[in-house]
Design brief:
With 417 residues, the protein is α+β, with helices and mostly antiparallel strands. The protein has helices spanning 17-26, 36-39, 41-52, 176-185, 206-213, 219-222, 243-259, 359-384, 400-416; strands at residues 57-61, 70-76, 79-85, 91-95, 110-112, 116-117, 124-125, 131-133, 152-158, 161-165, 192-202, 266-268, 272-277, 308-313, 317-321, 326-335, 338-348.
Length: 417
């Protein structure tokens, strides 16, 4: 009669912390996760509370708020926040919640202000969060403006990448920042600009989005445009790596050493990693023809052939730095089966659209790849939602990146439960 499949209640809303801990304790670490991790509202709520409200998250790029009063907004679950450039040039982060009656203080995705004025009752805050004006509330007995500053969030930067944490006392940012600075700094993101920004809402759990990114097992069957330039291996120790690939890596490593370009693999546990790998021999950018997409190089780059520097930060970002542009990705969960994926194409700030770069050509390869990945994640979600779904085995070689991600996720989640 074929294989017997034990069906389980996959969306039980009554899952407790202890239930989730037991699911983690009892899982087969060589297999994918049980279904509730991908479709349970209870698990999702715990993830938001224990991972996304406590971890350091990639939020934005410093070039998006280049001058005093520039701000960007985003939402972490049900928490609206914003980042703003202060008078002293520093980047501050706040909960986007007026201390009067909770209205959002700044609106839209981006903007520029002299002061932070709540549009509801015009309570006004300085860029450093201090309350300046409370619309006659100052005359009420016992009211003290010093007690009603905006609620701050923690902010850290690495050479133009802005990270935030909503935790009261976040974990130390760690020594990865010091190791990563030289890798990112050469691209001088303070003197860059976002040429294109696009959003996709995927009907899939956020972990399926990250898992899909962490392996190229699917690339040959799904990403013809991407494979015009990308080599799927990111280490010569990969057992699939060919002699030709190893020779190319050695050649490019020697070239980059002579140019003073950092390229050695660095890690910050399973959460962070950076590695600069060559693209296909003869290509210099992730474009359909492998040629650079922007006439101006990105930062203090001595040569156009910088390969692809891959920067991973869990739980919500991966990035590809090339000689002429950066493709930055940010993932934000919207629900158990809904995820916002934001892609930003970044070029030198002096690059002129239509003269130095063509937006369609710049974004074409990853536009195709993002749509292809969206379909893969959404179809996986549909299968996982079936009562027939059971965790399946990871390929130990082709899917090691997925294993590393799930190991990080389950360890991080478990220690918070």
């Amino acid at each position: 009669m074929g294989n017997t499949i034990t069906l389980t209640n996959i969306t039980d809303p009554s899952l407790s912390r202890e239930d989730v801990k037991h699911l983690i304790e009892s899982r087969n670490t060589a297999y994918s996760l049980p279904a509730p991790f991908y479709n349970s509202q209870a698990v999702f709520d715990l993830e938001m509370q224990e991972i996304f409200h406590k971890s350091w998250l990639f939020a934005a790029l410093s070039c998006e708020i280049p001058k005093q009063g520039n701000y960007v907004t985003l939402e972490i679950g049900r928490n609206p926040i914003f980042l703003v450039r202060d008078k002293d040039g520093s980047i501050k982060g706040y909960h986007n919640v007026c201390r009067h009656r909770g209205h959002k203080v700044v609106l839209g995705e981006t903007g520029k202000v002299a002061k932070l004025v709540c549009p509801y009752h015009q309570w006004t805050y300085e860029l450093n969060g201090d309350l300046l004006f409370a619309n006659s509330m100052e005359q009420t007995e016992g009211f003290d403006k010093k007690e009603f500053s905006l609620a701050p969030i923690h902010v850290e930067t690495i050479a133009g990448f802005i990270f935030i944490s909503l935790a009261d006392t976040p974990e130390p940012f760690g020594d990865f920042k010091a190791k990563a600075e030289p890798y990112l700094a050469i691209h001088d993101l303070d003197n860059a600009k976002v040429a294109i920004e696009k959003h996709i809402v995927e009907d899939a759990n956020w972990k399926l989005v990250i898992e899909n990114n962490r392996e190229c097992y699917h690339c040959n069957g799904a990403h013809p445009e991407l494979l015009n330039s990308l080599i799927e291996f990111d280490d010569t120790t990969d057992p699939r790596a060919t002699d030709e690939f190893k020779a190319l890596v050695n050649k490019k490593a020697a070239d980059w050493d002579l140019l003073g370009v950092p390229h050695h693999h660095i890690e910050g546990g399973l959460r962070n990693r950076i590695v600069r790998m060559p693209l296909l021999d003869g290509t210099v950018a992730m474009t359909i023809d492998g040629k650079r997409a922007c006439n101006k190089l990105l930062g203090n780059i001595p040569d156009e052939d910088m390969g692809s520097m891959r920067f991973l930060h869990l739980p919500n970002s991966w990035n590809h730095f090339q000689g002429d542009h950066l493709v930055a990705f940010r993932v934000l969960p919207l629900g158990p089966e809904k995820t916002l994926v934001t892609t930003k194409w970044v070029v030198h700030k002096d690059a002129v659209e239509g003269l130095d770069y063509d937006p369609e050509r710049l974004s074409f390869v990853w536009d195709q790849t993002n749509v292809q990945d969206q379909l893969l994640a959404e179809r996986s979600q549909a299968g996982i939602n079936s009562k027939a779904y059971k965790p399946g085995p990871y390929h130990p070689t082709y899917e090691f990146g997925v294993v590393n991600f799930i190991d990080w996720y389950t360890d991080e989640f478990y220690k918070q439960l």
